[in-house]
Amino acid sequence: MSTAGQVIKCKAAVAWGPAKPLSIEEVEVAPPKKGEVRVKILATGVCHTDAYTLSGKDPEGEWWPTIFGHEGGGIVESIGEDVTSVQPGDHVIPLYIPECRECKFCKSGKTNLCSLVRSTQGRGVMPDETTRFTCKGQKVYHYMGCSTFSQYTVLLEISVAKINPKAPLDKVCLLGCGITTGYGAATKTANIQPGSTVAVFGCGGVGLSVIQGAASRKASRIFAIDTIPKKFEFAKKLGATDCINPNDFDKPIQQVLVEMTDGGFDYTFDCTGNTNVMRAALESCHKGWGESIIIGVAGAGEEISTRPFQLLTGRAWKGSAFGGVKGRSELPNLVEDYLDKKLEVDMFITQQYKLEDINKAFDNIHSGER
Ligand SMILES: NC(=O)C1=CN([C@@H]2O[C@H](COP(=O)(O)OP(=O)(O)OC[C@H]3O[C@@H](n4cnc5c(N)ncnc54)[C@H](OP(=O)(O)O)[C@@H]3O)[C@@H](O)[C@H]2O)C=CC1
Ligand SMILES: N[C@@H](CCC(=O)N[C@@H](CSC=O)C(=O)NCC(=O)O)C(=O)O
Ligand SMILES: [Zn+2]
Ligand SMILES: [Zn+2]
């Protein structure tokens, strides 16, 4: 029996307030309005950014109760008025950076940061200022325009990438954030050139994906830098040539690295969100041309610093969101690369949980067990 046009009752992991465990609740999911789609979510990753906002350190994370999750995969259940690019049954990956193809940003050809709905998305509501979720009679907010920790969610049409239905959603859901972010930062934002030297600070899902991207661009040396040595096993499998634990040295890590590499790297990446590491990454760049890409998300009120002389002498600081990837146009191609065995995804799945056990996944994020 079709559920189109009906309110759907389903389970979701609801965050009732900062730093509280998520609570599995029955929620009501309203039908999609004009320009919206309702999606049955079959799989979701848990990203460090979910944990960051749940912790209360995100200046935009003041909307409670909310349903987190932004790294999912699902099947379109129903569509609202005027939706033309997807239909019920299509397999999709939700996009926390939409692609409207009409705003100044989309048309610029310079960025993936579509800004058509950024303001309402950052306040946890749909463009009409309302939400599609309720729980126990209370309004529940959306998160990053996705809310994949629910069995059903409502997204904008411009916030879904239609993908090949042959792709297993429990794998390619990771392309909804971590893998695409790191891989894209290496191949699009930095546009690493063959023979380059690369340093990756932080070897979680994002950093490992930078390593994979650097290897695909035939970087000559790829340094993996992390304080947890067991991360190096994965880093080496994905192409790291050198593995460094900063705790093994008495000197600042940037000094160590510059000495080891005859002046520093062509490209460095911060994949930790730690502002001291961001500085070390910038200062590990080669004089004259080295570029450092910030990917990690830092806590509210934190700032980066370095001596301006570092920039004056030719190092450059950049940032990357979702790897610079335009979701609707480019993400389906990454799914094809996965199906063609050109892009590693399976290795990134270290553990799987039922929705009921989602707090265990958050515990693992905090303990480094992922
Ligand atoms: N810009 C974007 O579009 C996106 C940004 N992000 C952000 O990217 C960052 C990385 O995400 P993810 O890979 O999932 O996170 P993880 O926590 O899995 O990985 C970060 C790694 O860095 C390590 N680390 C911490 N401090 C240092 C240090 N001083 N030197 C070297 N390594 C260190 C961590 O160790 P330990 O666990 O011990 O701290 C961990 O192994 C997060 O801040 C996340 O919010 C994520 C997705 C998209
Ligand atoms: N709300 C935070 C910023 C969070 C942030 O930077 N998000 C990244 C994606 S992180 C994914 O896991 C992003 O894409 N940013 C672009 C954007 O427009 O938000 C804060 O205010 O600090
Ligand atoms: Zn994420
Ligand atoms: Zn746009």
UniProtKB/TrEMBL annotation:
Its EC number is 1.1.1.284. Belongs to the zinc-containing alcohol dehydrogenase family. Class-III subfamily. The keyword Magnesium does not apply. It is an enzyme of class 1 (oxidoreductase). It comes from Funneliformis geosporum. Its cofactor is Zn(2+). NCBIfam families: adh_III_F_hyde (TIGR02818). Keywords: Metal-binding, NAD, Oxidoreductase, Zinc. It holds the Pfam family ADH_zinc_N. InterPro entries: ADH-like_C, ADH-like_N, ADH_3, ADH_Zn_CS, GroES-like_sf, NAD(P)-bd_dom_sf. One of its GO terms (molecular function) is zinc ion binding. The keyword Metal-binding applies. It comes from the Eukaryota. GO terms for cellular component: cytosol. One of its GO terms (biological process) is formaldehyde catabolic process. This is S-(hydroxymethyl)glutathione dehydrogenase. Residues 34-125 form the Alcohol dehydrogenase-like N-terminal domain. It catalyses: S-(hydroxymethyl)glutathione + NADP(+) = S-formylglutathione + NADPH + H(+); a primary alcohol + NAD(+) = an aldehyde + NADH + H(+); a secondary alcohol + NAD(+) = a ketone + NADH + H(+); S-nitrosoglutathione + NADH + H(+) = S-(hydroxysulfenamide)glutathione + NAD(+). Residues 205-336 form the Alcohol dehydrogenase-like C-terminal domain. Signal peptide: none annotated.
